[in-house]
Write a structure and sequence with these properties.
The protein is an alpha/beta fold and 547 residues long. The protein contains 18 helices and 23 strands. The two termini are 27 Å apart.
Amino acid sequence: MKFIVRSKRVFTSARSCTAPRELAFAVDEAGRIAHVGAPDDVIAACPAATPVVDFGDRFICPGFHDAHLHFFHTAVYNSPFVLMHMGESEAELVARTREFAATLPEGAWVVTQGWRDYRWDPPVPPTKRSLDEAFPDRPCAMCSGDGHTLWLNSRALEELGITRDSEPPAGGIYDRDASGELTGVIREAAAMELQPRLLEWLSQADFERAYTEQMARMAEQGITSICDMSLMPLPGCDFIREDIYEALDARGALTLRAHLFPTLLDDMSRLERLQERYGAPDASPLIKAPGFKQFFDGVSSQHTAYLTEPYANPRYPGDRGHLTVSAERMRALVLAAAERGHAVRIHTIGDGAIHAALDIFEEARARFDLPTQGRNTLEHLENLLPGDIARLHDLGIVASSQPCHITLDPGGPERDLGEERARIMWPFATYARAGVRQAFGTDSPITPVTSMNVLYTAVTRQDPVTHEPAGGWLPSERIPMAQALGNYTLGSACAAGRESELGSLEPGKFADFVALGRDLTACSPDEIQATRVLATYVGGRCVYEAM
């Protein structure tokens, strides 16, 4: 045995207990848990010289698993190369960006992430005019907070070859003013197509540095696993960089488990090559490729999420958003993947997209066996038809949600969807009563990778920064901490198809765990965010320890 862990407060899994208790578990040389039980029994079952790490009354639980993020942009956007800032207004953000640009090397693009015009004062869409005044000779690209829109200056448009006569790709939009001139705002598929070109000035060493620094920040948050999700549905634009993970792993610098989900295309060879490589007997246990990602609609705040009925504040008659690909096209992709045994995770925000995706998964389940690696999953699920909650359970679909999305746009759901539809949004408690398997994540860089914020928001339904609204938004959908922990650990492992290896502290599973300074299941909601991570272990290896 490698060592024994003991504590008076061990939370093994929401599946097996709702309160921590005094336990010990032994970690073998392969980084897996060999025994779990009363401390004296575990110690007696191990060789006499086995070291014991005694955490006293520290709270021990499975490592947190971010079930949905985009690691490339999380790492790069949190590096010195990009400014993360929403701005109080267009003018304030541009002024802040000018200051930031002075720190960049010559020849670098000026790139920011985070603007949300509906939260500005005044809440009006930006145009290239302000950026042209600030950066007349330097390309500047501002990525929106939801990741679906770009705001570019004229120099960036020129570098990217976009002119007044250019036509956007299918599913994309170039905003124009009344005279037909480009405003510099580019949406959905058109924005996604351009994303890879904004950071071409960075080197491989820059990317590896950004990944290493981001993993260190995540270890401080107690995060031991991630699902790195394709950012875009276009070929070559998923930003899943297995080369970076492999380079770091080769030198022992990979400090979390990375589950890679590239875009589902007609050609499935990329995923299959990854699965062959990472499934080999001598493959690293830290990198897996469990399945595919696809995109079915956009976001509600921009009226690109697909609804069954028009928006409450339509921008044109019959405005219900739109699917990014036709239902028939999505059906063909998912059925082809299912026939080859591949799991698919689909971006679905509007109730129309969710319903159509469930229809497709229902057909796939009837015609083919379950996936051999991951689990079929719906991502985001912001508003649902009431009957589709039971269908999630009946079809065995994982509901992958990001709790910190709940308060990104205060009042937005009521504004866009109306009071009645807004009552069925991110229904965590309703899911639990219906037996729906849930997974939690952040969708970073859309919201920060902050584990205590995820748990706080799930439990309180309040914003992690403002702590509004008092009592929580849709408070009937608050869940107990034990359930939140289960969703953020075992539930996320299910989304990755690794519930037999990860997500709880049980014999045979990897020893991925975190030690916290406070018992989250017993503390008040006001204490959650102040809880410190004291140590993080991945496969029995300590990757973070508080000073």
